[in-house]
Amino acid sequence: MCHHCVIDSVKDRMLSRRDFFKGGAVAGAAAAASLAAPAPLFAQKAMPTKAEDLTHELFEAFPTFFNEQQLFKKALFNYAEHKFNINEWRFNEHTGTHLDAPLHFSADGKSVAEIPVADLVCPLAIIDIRQKAADNADAQVTPDDITAWTDANGDLPEGACVAMLSGWGAHLETGKFRNVGEDGKTMHFPGFHIEAAQMLMEAPSVKGIAVDTLSLDHGPSPDFAVHYAWLPSGRWGLECVANLESLPASGATLVVGAPKLRGGTGGPSRVIAMV
Amino acid sequence: MCHHCVIDSVKDRMLSRRDFFKGGAVAGAAAAASLAAPAPLFAQKAMPTKAEDLTHELFEAFPTFFNEQQLFKKALFNYAEHKFNINEWRFNEHTGTHLDAPLHFSADGKSVAEIPVADLVCPLAIIDIRQKAADNADAQVTPDDITAWTDANGDLPEGACVAMLSGWGAHLETGKFRNVGEDGKTMHFPGFHIEAAQMLMEAPSVKGIAVDTLSLDHGPSPDFAVHYAWLPSGRWGLECVANLESLPASGATLVVGAPKLRGGTGGPSRVIAMV
């Protein structure tokens, strides 16, 4: 599918799902006029007492979308010889637990260095689809899942990041993380449905979405529909997030330690949650 | 100076300055038995309302200790041709606003990936030596500066990072950041005095030190005395920290978004303070 076909297809599907968005279920949907609208730094009422690491360790064989090695380490100085250690690393920006900046899927969107720091600290809403993902590796976060979350937890907090917990982090060091099907190429892992992304885009304050898999779009996506809708809107995404199962569905605060690479389309990030 | 001479010299100076440490001025000095002792996540009493970015943007010409380029960017995919953008970066771990892990100056200290996440979130104490640094580029944070801080602000908070604010961040894109002297090689910028580092090491809960210059040791240091004392003790350092002047001397909470590189001796970090 060519780029323009992809965009048209995505737009059509967005419009067709407008009726799914009820308007009242996302805090600030009516009030917030732009992404830059200030939101409280912390959603929780009590001072956080614990930091949880949502970051996978980065190693050279970290699984990748394209199934080619994307991280390379080289020792420059070693203690035995030089009395100090220094390494050089080479990496594709989209490796490990990492951020997708708007520039990743747009001609002139914000680079990772241009995302305001206030947008890297936000309340975290976790949508648990582990049960359906266990039954179906191609499961997606749908508008119904978002509605189920707000039914159980109240409005999405202003300026939130909405994360998918599919349980896929447990498969990181096995073939099931990429989960290539019988055709030898199509991957099968969970992601966001374009209609869920569109629903969240109608809540202007939502800053980011996060997944514990290799892509915001689910494995068999033919068109990166979520990438092409979400990122050019000025929002960010997080992929290969770890350890979401250690957190409550609502109430944690996310800090995205994204690298401040000039012109970067994203990058390996230290992602920490406070609870 | 050979490695063993350096270590012996550092040890001698540590012992000679023990009388500078009064014991009572650092919270938890007596009680905390190890670096792993739990400390409150936030020092401030009120919920933080603002995030300050303490990270310089990373660009290929970012000044370096060795005065050789340490960061390289290469486009792998571009929007015009591929409908998405991805870059590859190559970097020396000790580039930009970055963390020094214990492994940087020890044979077998903790790598950057092995630092517990709880040690990357801590109260921030800022020692302002801008006035003396303006008069003397070789100025150092001394035990007297630490005592002046505790006299003004009370005990150092449990588990703190102690940061030097020398004002050097303003020189980042000028020759004054490295500030090479008339001999054509010796650099002149502020850093920690070994006796201040030793004083802080006697407060077992202090997790890190930070500087707004290229090195924990001041420019003319012949022996990396602070590096060789501080890092092998299991603590971390931050170099080239930005924007400390925007923060209060006491009361901010630091989040160090260090890259979780397996076997890494440190790395470019997203450093964010909450106030």
Structure, explained:
Two copies of one chain form a homodimer. Helix content of chain A is 18%, strand content 21%. The first copy, chain A, is globular, with a radius of gyration of 19 Å. In chain A, 53% of the residues are buried. Chain A has two domains: 37 residues; 224 residues, Glucose Oxidase, domain 1. By secondary structure, the first copy, chain A, is of the alpha/beta class. The longest helix of chain A is centred in the N-terminal third of the chain and has 14 residues. The first copy, chain A, has six helices and 13 strands. In chain A, strands 1-13-11-5-7-9-10-4-12 form a nine-stranded mixed beta sheet. In chain A, strands 2-3 form a two-stranded antiparallel sheet. The N terminus of chain A is likely disordered. At the A-B interface, strand 1, strand 3, strand 11 and strand 13 of A face strand 1, strand 3, strand 11 and strand 13 of B. Strand 3 of chain A pairs antiparallel with strand 3 of chain B, so a sheet runs across the interface.
> The CATH topology of the largest domain in chain A, please?
Glucose Oxidase, domain 1
Oligomer: homodimer
Q: What is the string of SSEs of chain A from the N terminus onward?
A: HEEHEEEHEHEEHEHEEEE
- Our measurement of the CA-to-CA distance between the termini of chain A, rounded to an integer number of angstroms, reads 43 Å
Q: What would you say the CATH architecture of the largest domain in chain A is?
A: 3-Layer(bba) Sandwich
Please sum up the structure shown.
The structure is a homodimer of 275-residue chains. Chain A has 275 residues and is of the alpha/beta class.
